[in-house]
Prior knowledge:
Layout: E1 2-10, H1 15-23, H2 27-35, E2 38-46, E3 49-56, H3 61-70, H4 72-81, E4 85-86, E5 98-100
Antiparallel strand pairs: 1-3, 1-4, 1-5, 2-3
Amino acid sequence: MKRYGQVIGVKPETFEKYTSYHAAVWPEILQMIYECNIQNYSIYHKDGLLFAYFEYIGADYDADMKKMGADPKTQEWWDIMMPMQEPLKTRAEGEWWSTMDEVFHTN
């Protein structure tokens, strides 16, 4: 299992809409997250930033992310979410959400 932390901005004028979608995530999205070996997925908000945490339990993260990205319902969801988000200027090439480095963990 590998833990991931990611961050992205959210446009203040869209935050209420963003949270309302996440209060009732489409079942197909939740199923795809499960099928792509992601568990314990959470999103937090502070001062215009969204922080995502999840645990990846699969064997091929890149393949699972390609599977998720190819899913038509996931693409539809992203088409709604992406205009509400503001990627960090410092993100790596090809990233939307910026992946963070883990610096500490305890059980």
